Amino acid sequence: MKIDSKNLGLVTKKFNEYFLVDLKHNKNYKNNRKFLCKVRKSINFKNKIIYVGDEVVIGQIDIKRKRAVIENLVTRKNLLARPSVANISNIYIICSVEEPQLNLSQVNKFLISAELLGVGVSLVLTKCDLISEKRKLFLIDKFANWGYQATTLNLYKPNNFKDLLAELKTKPCSIFMGPSGVGKTTVLNMIIPGLQNSTAKVSRKIKRGKNTTRNVELFSLSSNSYIVDTPGFNMQKLEIDVRFLPNLYSEIRRQVIDEGIKCKFRNCLHLNDKGCNLNKSFERYVFYKQMIESSKSHYYLNQED
Ligand SMILES: Nc1nc2c(ncn2[C@@H]2O[C@H](COP(=O)(O)OP(=O)(O)OP(=O)(O)O)[C@@H](O)[C@H]2O)c(=O)[nH]1
Ligand SMILES: [Mg+2]
Ligand SMILES: [Zn+2]
Known about the structure:
Helices cover 26% and strands 23% of the residues. By secondary structure, it is α/β, with parallel strands linked by helices.
């Protein structure tokens, strides 16, 4: 596909048959980069669906009316399944330490499903004003053992947010994912000047968020750095091919790849098989085993279909 980079844009929002597209690298439209677009009717894309995060070529640019037409779709690097967002470079799993309470099995499911995309995965713990310093350090230590250097945030300490923003600006397109009510939109409102997206108090009765954010939207942090807010949801059963699972756990990756441990069978799932040399004394091994078991039954069910 021949691409004219002058007219290369990024889909930042999608509604019905309309797309909001930011024109990339074009000095002529510096303060005027957002265009409302439809797909050109005669275009027959191989993959017809265009997602937020997709790079597109636009034409028929009408600067006055801020309208244009999508003429081509650039091959995407990756596509996140839920929510559907293309070309993600980094996933930030956001979880609150309280309100809603931290649920380790949920955090693990989010992390593992994020690892599946094969991009950088980070963990952010919000609402640290609701726990003691001791508990915070305990959690940081726990997640370090899981292989993640958790960022801790507290609405009353704006400096933490500055550091996070500086980090996000070094990444082309990050996404915030996590349960409802953990503070994803609050964090975005803190780091993007002028942005005042809706947030809502966590329900006292059910101690859950109220699913305040409804749409997937990409916000610009700089001319080459974007961040996506997503609606919160809880992870149900993960359906991952068991053969991929060992590689998604950093504790296993470290032993197999860095330390070069070898099991008798090349495709060892590191259960209790004879000939397995994995050191299983790490906290998430229980979650790993559960995930293998539930993925296995899913895998076999599919085989019988
Ligand atoms: N105490 C405390 N409350 C916070 C903090 N950060 C966010 N909140 C509160 O948490 C509530 C939910 O925040 P939202 O930003 O709406 O959460 P969300 O993750 O975007 O939720 P959905 O859009 O439903 O997925 C709001 O009332 C926030 O004020 C924090 O650091 N400390
Ligand atoms: Mg939100
Ligand atoms: Zn093994």
